[in-house]
Every structure is written in structure tokens, then in C-alpha cells.
Amino acid sequence: MYVAGFTNTVSGSGTVWKNGIASSLANGSPFAITDALGVFVSGTDVYAAGWGRNGGSMVAAVWKNGLATSLSDGTSDAFAFSVYVSGTDVYAGGWQDTGPSTVATVWKNGVGTALASSSGFSLVHSVFVSGSDVYAVGGDGNTAKIWKNGVGTALTDGTKNAGANSVYVLGNDVYVAGYESNGTKNVAKVWKNGVATFLTDGSKDAEANGVFVK
User: Fold this and answer.
1) What pLDDT, in 10s, does the model give residues 121-172?
2) How far is CA 108 from CA 80, 85, 180, in A?
3) Whole-angstrom Cα distance, residue 90 to residue 74?
4) Which of 6, 59, 136, 141 has its CA 20 to 30 A from that of 83?
5) For residue 41, which of 76, 81, 3 has the smallest C-alpha distance?
6) CA 68 to each of CA 36, 101, 106, 122, 186: distance values in angstroms, whole numbers, following the listed order
7) Which string of DSSP letters, residue by residue, matches the chain?
8) Residue 50 CA, distance from chain mean position
9) Per-residue confidence at 40, pLDDT binned at 50, 70, 90?
10) Strand order in the sheet with 45-53
11) pLDDT reading at 11 higher than 80
């Protein structure tokens, strides 16, 4: 069992736990401060996605077996929230700050592709690869959104705040976990092929942050 997260040390260290035993991403990393936001295991290789910083901007990064690869150049903030490995290809999803806006981004083998946005703020929370198709989910302004091979589809109408946090593909079915506000509270939701199911009744704030299908 692998878990990615953060350990509050003097400098702050992204951490991957394997069966409860911690490994710091600061070891072998060029960054003074790190944070791990996603983890993926492929064979004997352990990948983590997150960010690192040396006093300046936050740099989106992927670690393979503890060794970091920067995804952004450090001239502005960038985050990687999710990593997925398919064959020899390593995908990461997150966002980059372009100055006037924050742009949802998917990186493939370190090369970033900005996803079209209709707002000034968009991001990718989760990425999943099925065959030759690359899925990413996140937010585009107030709208929960899914991108397939770079083409975006809204899961909500944008009239209320919403976001998509996780995606899982099984066969021809695409599942997304997230939330949408009812005007006063966030309601946890799961979408199957774009059709939403409410997980909570809206009386209290709730979000769905992960989905897995077996």
C-alpha cells in the first residue's frame, strides 16, 4: 500500500509511505521544500506528483523512485496533483500560473499541454489513461469539467460552484468524483458517463475526492 503526502519537518518534505514506512522526497531532490499530492506504482517503480520550491516559485514535479523531474521552469507557480503511467509514458495533471490566469495542464513525459479554458482559472486534479485516450478532470472557473484527449466537456452548467476531483475509466464507462454547490452547501457527487448521482443530501458540506471501480 502506497500513500503520498507531506511531513512537517524544518524544511517541509513531501513523503511517500510504503506499508507505513516513510520515504522523504527531499532525499535526492533539488528542492528545499516539497509536497507529494499523488502516487502511482508501475512494476517496481514508484512515481509521485507534487511540487517543490527553493525560495521562489513552486515548481510542478514528478518523482520516480525518489528522483525529481521538474515539469515547469520556476518562473511562475505550478502544481502537479496526479500522476499516471502507461507503458513508458508518464502523465501528470495540474496547473500553471500564466500571470493573467491559471491554466489546467497535462504533462506527457515532461512536456506540458495547456487545456482550453473558458475562465481565468482552471486546473486538473486527476489524470487517467485508457488505451490511447487520456482523461483529465478538474475545474474551469465554477464548472466541473472532464477533458478527453484535450477536448473539454462540462459536467455542470457553471451557475453554481463545482469541481471534479478524481476520474476512473473501466471499459467504456467513465466515472468522476467531485461536488456541486446547491447554493448554500457543497453536495458530493459521482458522475458515470456524464450523469450525476448525489452522494449526500446537501444539508452539510461534502465532497467526493476519489473514485475506484472494481
Assistant:
1) 999 999 999 999 999 999 999 999 999 999 999 999 999 999 999 999 999 9
2) 12, 10, 29
3) 20
4) 141
5) 3
6) 11, 26, 17, 25, 36
7) -EEEEEE--SS-EEEEEETTEEEETTTT-S-SEEEEEEEEEETTEEEEEEEEESSSS-EEEEEETTEEEESS-SSS-EEEEEEEEETTEEEEEEEEE-SS-EEEEEEETTEEEEPP-SSSBEEEEEEEEETTEEEEEEEETTEEEEEETTEEEESS-SSS-EEEEEEEEETTEEEEEEEEE-SSSEEEEEEETTEEEESS-SSS----------
8) 9
9) very high
10) 33-42, 45-53, 59-64, 67-70
11) no
Residue 148 sits at φ, ψ, to 5 deg, of -120, 115
